[in-house]
Design brief:
The protein has six helices and four strands, in the order E-H-E-E-H-E-H-H-H-H. With 193 residues, it is α+β, with helices and mostly antiparallel strands. The chain folds into three domains: 97 residues, Ribosomal protein S6/Translation elongation factor EF1B (Alpha-Beta Plaits, 2-Layer Sandwich); 30 residues, no CATH class; 31 residues.
Length: 193
């Protein structure tokens, strides 16, 4: 077995129904397991109660904790065994580092206060907010300005974008012929339907 001490980082998420005191007690008990196996705890960071990116075991929140430590591989194996057996731990990950400079920490995000209200608005209007798409009045006006691909039959048909003129014809005469062809086609369509 490998007897070399290595640097490790472990992040785990505790069940959200725990109180602050119970969450702290769980962190201390997991840290004690590491110390009993001869590891040296470098740093413990508590991320607090945060919203999860996706539900885990039907929970949307969890207490995040990050621990940096030096230990033998046996200590990490024991810690991960305890993670799997403990119902309080929703998810965990452990990473081995070669250098201490590579280790990360939490970047504290603002709390989730007030986000529930905005979430309801986003559900009603889609993912984007009004500030992104503009006010509703602006959206209606921009829709009216755009040409509609399937125009109603009572509107004038669009003229072709490019008209070729024969050398012996006048441009106006060629345009009148093209419009007459379009109106004849429309008459034929109305008769068949």
């Amino acid at each position: 077995m490998n007897t070399r001490i290595a640097l490790y980082e472990t992040i785990f998420i505790l069940h959200p129904e725990l109180t602050e005191e119970e969450a702290e007690e769980a962190v201390q008990s997991l840290n004690k397991i590491l110390e009993d196996k001869g590891s040296e705890t470098l740093r413990i960071e508590r991320g607090g109660k945060r919203r999860l990116a996706y539900p885990i075991r039907k929970q949307r929140y969890g207490y995040y904790t990050l621990i940096h430590f030096r230990a033998l591989p046996d200590a990490l194996l024991e810690l991960e065994r305890i993670y799997r057996l403990n119902d309080r731990v929703l998810r965990y990950i452990s990473v081995r580092y070669d250098k201490e400079e590579q280790m990360t920490g939490f970047t504290r995000l603002p709390d989730d206060d007030g986000r529930e209200e905005g979430r309801d608005d986003r559900r009603r209007m889609g993912r984007r907010t009004d500030s992104y798409r503009g006010a509703p009045e602006d959206r209606r006006a921009s829709r009216e300005d755009k040409p509609v691909a399937n125009a109603a039959a009572d509107e004038e048909p669009e003229t072709p974008a490019e008209v070729t003129v024969a050398a012996d014809e006048e441009p106006e005469a060629r345009l009148e012929v093209a419009e007459a062809d379009v109106s004849d086609d429309e008459k034929g369509e109305g008769a068949t339907s």
